[in-house]
Amino acid sequence: MSDASRPLGRLFYLLPLIFVWIVLASETSAGQTPARTTISDVVYRADGTVEGGTLLLSWPAFSTAGGQAIAAGTTSAVLGSGGVLSVQLVPNVSATPSGTFYTVVYHLDDGTVKTEYWAVPTTSPTTIAAVRTAPGSSGQPSQLATQQFVNTALAGKANDSAVVHLNGSETITGAKQFAVAPSLPAPVLPTDAVNKGYVDSAVTTSGSGSFVSKAGDTMSGPLTLPSDPVAPNQASTKHYADIGLAAKAGLISGVVPTGQLGSGPANNSVCLHGDSTWGGCGSSSNAISIQGVPVDTSAPTDNQVITYSASQGKYQPKAGGGITAGMQAVKYATDFNWSQIPATDLSVAGAETVSLSVCPPGTTGTEPWYYVYVSGTGTAEAVLVTGGSCAGNGQAGTLQFTTANSHSAGYTIGSASGGLQEALVAARYTPTNPTGTSQAGKVVVPPGQFIAYARVSIRASGMTVDFSGSIVECWMNDSCIFVGDALNINAPSRAAIFQAIVREVEIEVKDLAEHSIYKIKFANDAAKSLAFEFDSAKVASALDVAAISNTQVGAVFLSSLTAAEITATSSATVTIDAGISPIVGGGFEVRWTDAGWGQGNNRNLAGRFSSQTFTLPRLARIQNYFVRQYDASVPPKYSRYSAALHLDYPL
Question: How many other CB atoms are there within 10 angstroms of residue 39's CB atom?
């Protein structure tokens, strides 16, 4: 008995061990961590800078493609330095239920909040662009669909009211074409559609040769047309032909009879017109009319085309290409780049006078510091123009310069600055109120790479040059961009020999018969320290300056504007109140610097105004304005001292 019971006892202990092993194995299998995919990317703004902020991620419960259960939940990820994102998520592509996605809400540092959806694959790592998806785009019937998905699906469907139904009476409008002929019943009413059988039966005995064939036929009698033709391809009646021929001259033996010629004498300035009258002759170079419409006698200027003016009833020169006068006032450097291949012999280096067939705008022989570039044959060089008849007016002319190298036939002469110097010359204008020297203007150097082979001089006051986005390469042993008129300075007392721009000269008379002190200020910073004084400089003769007493100052100078003030400012303008009403016939003169006062100098002039309050342009955050009043005397009297108004306000 005892032997028989021993195996039973052993089996009893073995079964629990097997059960425990199975349970542990099962728990170990179920507790394995699901594989995760790393989404790694950099988030940028639209302007190319990196973003910062936090991403909030949420998901519903789902089972992975491998059968692992994922509970619903949320997490967050912070955009690191440089906009870097790195987050690990369990893949939900091919998950159950189908169409499962992660909802990602961006909370960005610039206040932007946006939502998008991710479908994460098993491939790791991956990017944001690879996981972005739209709900409803997977094609699962039970999945929520976006408005975009629905609208796209319905776009190809016809409205119920726009289709023909199988039953009911409906009216079809417009012509319809069928790929296969429809079957129709025999017609009953006069307006019923007919089938082929009905037509064949109706025309079986029709025709019988009593109609003219479209392919061509012979008629046994005359054909009567309803009226004269009105379209080019219509048949003409005899009446129409007779009328047309009646206005034409006869021709006998190849010659028009004398009696049918126009009246009046013929000469080299008039021609016989089609209406048998003598009149002015038109030509391609001097047309007097186009299709019977007169052409204005004014010759078009640069950038103008002949345009019909309905108000004038004739063709007139107007700005072409939709360009307004205001747009033409701004000069673009690239529009003024030019080159020509003259026939003038430059085979021997030295002084030359080259003839140009056309002197482009800005190309002139009288402009100081104007260079042209000679290339193509020989050693290319930039040469300084010293004279010539060219005036930049589109007419033929000459340029004078001295070459250092010889250039055989076929050389090219053109702008030495890609058109920039020519645009600076063409942009200047002469003000009329008051009349001044050529000045101001605006030149734009479009984005791109320019090569300057010689100095570019900006000689006009008030000139604006916009270099935004452009690169200028300076291929010369000289100042590349030179602002102002250069003077050769030779000061032995300071051992200073250089070329600079003198901005201001101050003369202080110490003694009418003995000496004066001169202070010279230069434009470039490098030369500022070289400002010098001449002591004991003899005056050749006593200056004719009459001394006046303090009580007589009022008769020579006007009162200073002690109440002047800035009353308003914007990013582009400043409004100034002079503090007093202007003198009759006079006004207020405003300058950018406290120098050059007077009607004959406009170089640093900001403006002259005849009202107490006026508006000026603002060119920088920090801006100084100097104001004096003047009267109507000749020459006008001015305030003895300037009212200096200082502005320091953000743009």
Answer: 24
The owner of tokens 């020509």 is 340
Q: What is the strand order of the sheet 132-133 is part of?
A: 73-79, 53-59, 102-108, 113-118, 132-133
| CA–CA distance, 472 with 562 (Å, rounded to integer) | 46
**Cβ partners under 8 Å of residue 507, min gap 6:** 516, 517, 518
Give me the average pLDDT of each 10-residue run along the chain (651 residues).
46 42 40 87 91 93 91 92 92 89 92 92 93 72 62 75 80 83 88 85 66 80 89 90 78 71 63 64 68 84 77 76 69 92 94 93 91 95 94 92 95 94 89 77 89 88 86 86 73 68 67 60 52 42 54 75 94 94 95 90 91 93 94 92 91 79
For residue 88, give both structure tokens: 């690990």
The pTM of the whole model exceeds 0.70: no
| Structure tokens, 503 | 């901005």
Phi-psi region of 484 (alpha: psi -120 to 50; beta: other; left: phi over 0): left
List Cα–Cα distances, 635 to 257, 631, 641, in angstroms: 79, 9, 18
**Residues with Cβ within 8 Å of residue 414, at least 6 apart in sequence:** 337, 338, 339, 340, 372, 373, 375
How far is residue 478's CA from residue 486's CA, in Å, rounded to a whole number?
12
In order, the DSSP letters of 461-496 are TT-EEE-TTEEEEE-SSS-SEEES--EEEEEGGGTE
Q: How far is 344 from 409, CA to CA, in rounded Å?
A: 8
